[in-house]
Amino acid sequence: xxxxxxxxxxxxxxxxxxxxxxxxxxxxxxxxxxxxxxxxxxxxxxxxxxxxxxxxxxxxxxxxxxxxxxxxxxxxxxxxxxxxxxxxxxxxxxxxxxxxxxxxxxxxxxxxxxxxxxxxxxxxxxxxxxxxxxxxxxxxxxxxxxxxxxxxxxxxxxxxxxxxxxxxxxxxxxxxxxxxxxxxxxxxxxxxxxxxxxxxxxxxxxxxxxxxxxxxxxxxxxxxxxxxxxxxxxxxxxxxxxxxxxxxxxxxxxxxxxxxxxxxxxxxxxxxxxxxxxxxxxxxxxxxxxxxxxxxxxxxxxxxxxxxxxxxxxxxxxxxxxxxxxxxxxxxxxxxxxxxxxxxxxxxxxxxxxxxxxxxxxxxxxxxxxxxxxxxxxxxxxxxxxxxxxxxxxxxxxxxxxxxxxxxxxxxxxxxxxxxxxxxxxxxxxxxxxxxxxxxxxxxxxxxxxxxxxxxxxxxxxxxxxxxxxxxxxxxxxxxxxxxxxxxxxxxxxxxxxxxxxxxxxxxxxxxxxxxxxxxxxxxxxxxxxxxxxxxxxxxxxxxxxxxxxxxxxxxxxxxxxxxxxxxxxxxxxxxxxxxxxxxxxxxxxxx
Length: 592
Fold this sequence. Notes:
This protein has 592 residues and is of the alpha/beta class. The chain has three domains: 10-331, Up-down Bundle (ABC transporter transmembrane region fold), CATH 1.20.1560.10; 351-428 and 510-521 and 538-592, P-loop containing nucleotide triphosphate hydrolases (Rossmann fold); 438-507, P-loop containing nucleotide triphosphate hydrolases (Rossmann fold), CATH 3.40.50.300. Helix content is 61%, strand content 10%. The strands form two sheets. It has a six-stranded mixed sheet with strand order 6-7-8-3-9-10, with helices on both faces. Strands 2-1-4-5 form a four-stranded antiparallel sheet, with helices on one face. Strand 1 and strand 2 form a beta hairpin. It starts with 9 loop residues before the first helix and ends with a helix.
């Protein structure tokens, strides 16, 4: 189980995550440094050229044995060509390395975050909005990619510039070096102070954009409801509130970050003016050569002016760190459901299911299931009925280990489901729910979902068993028809039959029918019932239903109330007992 590390700096968390990219990071860093070294060489070459013009046969190059002025300039020209070529080569190299690194980190981080998200229990999703999670997986990771793309290189090159030029100043003109470097401590202190001030503002920005994305995702999903209730103006005003909140949060951050560069410029002015004045007087007095003075004037600009970009770089950095925290917090969320260790090959599953003294409560709520025991023999069909909220669907979620039970035991073929490999457990169970989810894709792809290697004849056979083949063939492109997001191009009954075909193709030893016919008309219900009667043969079936007519032939019917079993027997036996079930039957059949 991963430990939360909110106290660790986000940059350290990012470096810990990216340890597999260490070699690429060092290579990209090396290219950035070499590029900056060659980028800083031209001012030195200009100083040498001035020295040649002024001193000619007494210049620095002449002291190396080349007295001819043309020869000296020829050497300078060759050096210039080499320097410019190497600068260009390393610029290409660092740009390619950093950008590829950014793409790799973005790609792998998004995949890792999504895979981790899939492993979390349903309670995690119930406490968070889809839009907020989308914001982390998309916008936050993109923000990090933008920083790695350019910001990391900018920081490295600024640091390289400070070290190289600072050293050159002390070598060439130690008497005036302190003047050029005087603003540096204030610039660095100011940068760090701004970083601390900006951090909470950008954290707030990331939070606000999460709320905004949540509102957008929710409204797009509910567009039919919005239109049917003519709530367009109301929803637009609610979105305006979230967007305005995001804008104000950004405005606060911008107000602070925009002041950075003007303040840094004032500090730079001090160093540049001091060197211009005192360095010039030293050159006139003969205490410094004209070539050295020229080099220093060029170098101080190369030293100080890039520091103005620190504002944009730190702006990128703080946004990236705020995003890093959100992504890493997701990755550090502990997985409550462990994967299990005992294999259960699907061909060996008999399908015997037992609940023993099971108690379960959703977070911060009263128990939904309380001390419940239930035996489901292999190959039999049992039904569970009861009023809304009695805990019927919760049993399904517990059997699939979408939630972990608090106390008690659930077994499949005598093995506790917590000990079974999670993939094996879920592979042997087929679920047909009243809330059918179809993915944006073709009919065939949706039927084959979970049985991805299924052939076309197998898909069509499953559709025939589910009595879906006939209506599928009437669709514009039959099995290749796009169903739309969540299957919105199909009717409720059509979606239900595709879901049944999906379960047929999976061919699970244990089949769960959770209100599988609750949202369809009588004719469709009859068709679905015919298909269900065929597929429940020789497999353990758990049918949860409100319509008692659909489960009257079950081998045993369990009646639940307030999380407890209150009756259990066959349909005829329950009618004879004249209890809760008999009363429900009379209401639904019109006898009362």
